[in-house]
Amino acid sequence: MIPVSPAVTGVPYGRPVESVNARVREPKQERSRLSFDKALDAVIALLVEHRSDSFTLADVAQRAGVSTGSIYGRVSSKDDLIRTAHAREMERIAEEQRAAFATEPPAGETFGEAVERVIGTAAELLRRNAAVLGPFMLLANTDPQIAELGGAAHAELRDAFVDALAQREDEIGHPDPHRALEWSFTVVYSVLARWLALGSTQQASGEGEWSDILADLARMVLAFLTQPEPAPRKRRR
């Protein structure tokens, strides 16, 4: 079972939404801010349940226990409300990601252990947030604003992955270590995204044991990164 973020279970964030969407009208009262936060929590919960935006603003208002008028007082449409919820989730996940990758590696860690740790960090971050990321990634196919912000979040995860292993660049046998690390991330992300059904249907998700997949990815990436540069081929005369 994929874990669900705090917003999905109805636990409020306890912080305001600060200009995450230019189309959001700032609240004049604290009560209005809290009502809007509840509406955003309801959007996330409904997206996870439906795995799409096949719900109405009336559904959001009912789930949040607020009036539709209070929602329209802040945004002009359901799309803008969803975009605001997306921006807030991306901000939350980005903070979680930065904290996860800021952890100092253990003393005496081998390169193989570093590869396993970095892949595990990225994997668990995606797994914890998969229930929320999945429907937003599907919406990105038709919403340029969600696609742009999601693309920036993906790039930040890629850079965190690459930077974490680039510190061991002298142990990478590939002639272009940075490109090799970026390619490793692409492969790792693709495998994990398929297992977690990120941006796709859930029919192909969950195939194979999660722990086995992580172990296989770590072995594959380590072999790719440490393989020495092949000797140039001799040209046939």
UniProtKB/TrEMBL annotation:
Residues 56-75 bind DNA. The keyword Flavoprotein does not apply. Keywords: DNA-binding, Transcription, Transcription regulation. PROSITE patterns: HTH_TETR_2 (PS50977). InterPro entries: Homeodomain-like_sf, HTH-type_TetR-like_transc_reg, HTH_TetR. The keyword Transcription applies. It comes from the Bacteria. Residues 33-93 form the HTH tetR-type domain. It holds the Pfam family TetR_N. This is HTH tetR-type domain-containing protein. It comes from Amycolatopsis tucumanensis. The lineage of its organism: Bacteria, Bacillati, Actinomycetota, Actinomycetes, Pseudonocardiales.
